[in-house]
Amino acid sequence: MTFSLRTCDRYHNLPCKVWTSFDNGSTSQCALVVVDLNLRMKEIASWALNVATMRGATYADARVVSQRSRALTTKNGKVGSASDAESVGMSVRVLADGAWGFAASEDLSRSGVETTAARAVEIALASARVKEQNVRLAPEKPVTTEWTTPHVIDPFSISVEQNIALLLKVDSEMRAVEGITLAETNLNFNREEQWFLSSEGSDIHQTKYSAGAGYTAFAFAGNEIQKRSYPNSYGGQWQNKGYELIDELKLVENARRIAEEAVALHHADQCPEGTFDIILDSSQLGLQIHESVGHPIELDRVLGMEANFAGTSFLTLDKLRTLRYGSEMVNVVADARQEHGPGLGTFGFDDEGVPAQCKPIITNGLFTGYLSSRETAHTIGENRSGGTLRAEGWNRLPMIRMTNISLLPGEKPLTLEQLVASTDHGILMQTNRSWSIDDRRYNFQFGCEIGWEIKQGKRVRMVKNPSYSGITTEFWNSLDAICSREEWTLWGTPNCGKGQPQQVMGTGHGAAPSRFRGIKVGSAYKGS
Amino acid sequence: MLTRDRAADIFDRIKKFSSADEVEVLFSGGRFALTRFANNIIHQNVEDENHIVSVRTVFGGRTARATTNRFDDESLRRVVESSEALARVQHPDPDLLPIPDSREAAGVADKKPTPVPSRYFAETAAITPQLRADAVKKIVEVAQKHRLTTAGIYSTAESVEGIFNSRGLSNWHTQTLAEVSITMLAGDSSGWQKSNSPDVNNLDPLRMAEIAAQKTLDSARPAEIPAGKYTVILEPSAALDIVGFMFWDYSGMAILDQRSFLTGRIGSQLFGENITIWDDVTHPLQTGSPFDGEGMRRLSLPLVENGVVKRVVYARATAERMKRSEQKDQIGPIEATGHGFSLPNEMGEMPLNIVFAAPQNPQTLDQMIASTERGVLVTRLWYIREVDPYEKIVTGMTRDGTFLVESGKVKQGIRNFRFNESLIHMLSNVEAMSVPLRSCGEESFDMVVPAMKIRDFNFTEVTKF
């Protein structure tokens, strides 16, 4: 009997010394795989750290990452795309002569890793030619630990046939509604396993799972394209969970209603223009939080480090604990901890080895905190990073990213229907359709898929093309009601772009439907 | 860097591992380096090398794709197995065509292809971290000379793109790209410039730094003027960032899906007579590979002639579907044009090498300003998003250098505006254009596009700076 090494597709994406493939076609069990793989990955990382420090790095960290993803889509009754992808590589981040260098490679051979580490030091020394002072890192106690996203069902264990059958069922429900001209669905699963080692002695093995699902029904008629999406637009709902998320979303049960609403929008009146009280559903409010709280509190933006691309922030350092960001009811946290929920910003440790934390951002309306890193913490008088540095993958530099930036629910019991019932005249807006905000995060404009005019506590008519706009702090100060915990959802934004080269990151945003007084409505169609 | 010979060897191994009826393999990747600066220092400095192999297998009308960046035999065997496992459980797709052979991919014989100029420059590939740091240092010196702070990037890349299939097709493209983007900042103003080219010698970071600095100085103490309809002069980067939002719609699949603003409008006078737009990968100022996601040669096509939308682009399968559709006689020429995305996908195709035709009487930016009684000069647009998909209304902000023009002169900097503007309306109101240039922004892909002077541009709000 002979055997050969084969790649283990259950735990990692590398040739595994204990997965064996026998010439009779059978395979052995991967019983020792975790121990073996950890040793191998740590060895790779230690090669990098050794070379980096020998070449003069005063600090170094190495990340070895294995990523796996699956994407399935359907369109009008057919599978649109079906693809699997894996990517494995390592990166080295170093400080040498007081400046940063970063290099990454797919080559995990010893010579390849050592070349990459040496390159990182060479790059750092080049950076040092244009510096003013040495980079300072806030202290962080090294840890040796493991963390895995809590999940019930490994999403990759569910057959592709089952997934496609689900999507096609949703598709048929949507297209059963007369007037639907295009139906699109998607399912996405990701797994990322990372070994982080630092020259300070940290050794962190972390495995994260995420899942996403959603669909959109389009109706084209006359000179209009209308659409409705579920559970959210632009890819649906995403969380750091296993397949159990898909079961929870009740995708099929909502498909026909969503399609009917898309068609009905063609018969709805245009959303009126003017100043109104508005109620935002929790998904739209999640994006509002993302754009008008999450980005401006990123300390790298505040310090000008993103000025060329993503922009800066109106939250200059003098605003900390002095700016009235919102009304007394507004309490926002940045919470990456597991106990906050399965958001896309939930993890055990960030990508420079700092544990997940909960930081107050807005406390009873007062601006109280930024998102920080080991490099930036000292600029706000902190002696520890807030733990927000994350990278898109093995070949990208970690940077300050939103974790779960959530508006805490109202403390008094309040359902959406009760909130509507307490509104004299307003517009309820649901599900984002467009979003835009200036590069300091003052002026924003959002469009939604559907609106409902409220009069004397009742939804009196559907309105199409609703939009609203405003200035960030004026908007948050106009908030006068937040629904309570049972209406609160931790939404996932899987497509947050930032950095050069641009990185796409998932962020979480908890929100419950809320009411804002005296908001400008309808500017998006003004003058056109 | 992955070579064509090594890729061919990988493809041969993949073929041996596959039991599928047909196999197609895409290669992409390369080496990328970027030096990033802010607050007059280099604060990030990165380099990475990565290549992927992406395997599409076909079994009797069923297809799927799997991708890896591991090229050892076991990884290749596994990526083939993944692709085949995904493909086998699909429902047969009656619209899926056999993969093309090299003859079909090259195009019909009577359309002799214009060769694509070399887009690989050894001097660009040879740029080191030290050379990038030296260039950044000079940019910082310009900032310091003007008492400003600067932020930006200097990046270089060498990349490969290749496709091999089991019917003998093989295409390979190598390219370099150098890019510089510079923001200059003062207390209440900013200025910006960005440029890229396959040949690093075409970039002039010092000149860009001086222009960005001058914009910053000229826009200091910005005044607030009310929102409303203004004549605007969009510099080329601003023009490309906004018009780029319509090109997803120049797709046969988008028409079939009824998600294109061109649905029912092909052949109509949609824009002003001075607007003519080509997609032309062979243009000397363009970049990119001369083949599409199935290896088909990209044709050079007029999309808009004198304001009339003449045609859209097609992947192979989209063209066949369109030929069977009720719209086939109202849609212009229908043929595979070499603009398809890699299969399987749900979006079909789009033009990616946009070239605006030069106007009959091109004007310089200075001439446009001199002929403007009252208007707004825009350096850059930001965070553009679609508001209405059929009227093609888009919203966004001005940024990094917005000026009031009065009596033929740039009068002063002004606070930034939000716009909500229909691209149909905008391209019907173009009063003047410059000679088109290779331009790049942040919201859309690179194009050859002119500066544009446009009447009645719809600004709806003013921000705080």
Q: What Rg of chain B, in angstroms, do the CA atoms define?
A: 24 Å
- Strand proportion of chain A: 35-45%
Oligomeric description of these chains: heterodimer
Which radius of gyration of chain A do the C-alpha atoms yield? Answer: 25 Å
Structure description:
The complex is a heterodimer of chains A (528) and B (465). Chain A is α+β, with helices and mostly antiparallel strands. Chain A folds into 3 domains: 3-31, no CATH class; 34-267, PmbA/TldD superfamily (PmbA/TldD fold), CATH 3.30.2290; 269-525, no CATH class. Helix content of chain A is 20%, strand content 39%. Chain A contains 9 helices and 26 strands. Chain A has helices at residues 33-54, 110-127, 160-175, 244-248, 251-264, 282-294, 299-302, 416-421, 472-477; strands spanning 3-7, 15-22, 59-75, 78-96, 99-105, 144-148, 182-198, 203-221, 224-230, 237-239, 269-270, 274-280, 332-335, 358-363, 366-367, 389-390, 399-400, 405-407, 425-437, 443-455, 458-464, 467-471, 479-482, 489-498, 503-511, 514-521. In chain A, strands 3, 4, 5, 6, 7, 8, 9 and 10 form an 8-stranded mixed β-sheet that branches. Chain A has a 5-stranded mixed barrel with strand order 12-19-20-22-26. In chain A, strand 4 and strand 5 (99-105) form a beta hairpin. Chain A is globular and about 70 Å long. The relative contact order of chain A is 0.13. The model of chain A is unreliable at 1-31 (pLDDT under 50). With 465 residues, chain B is α+β, with helices and mostly antiparallel strands. Chain B folds into 2 domains: 1-216, 2-Layer Sandwich (PmbA/TldD fold); 222-465, no CATH class. Chain B has 11 helices and 19 strands. Chain B has helices at residues 4-17, 73-88, 102-106, 122-125, 129-145, 205-218, 236-243, 252-256, 316-323, 365-370, 423-428, and strands spanning 22-38, 41-59, 62-68, 149-165, 170-185, 190-197, 228-234, 277-279, 301-305, 308-309, 354-356, 374-388, 393-406, 409-413, 417-422, 430-433, 437-439, 447-449, 452-462. In chain B, a hairpin with a 2-residue loop joins strand 9 (301-305) and strand 10. Chain B is globular. Chains A and B meet through strand 1, strand 4, strand 5, helix 2 and helix 3 of A and strand 1, strand 2, strand 3, helix 2 and helix 5 of B.
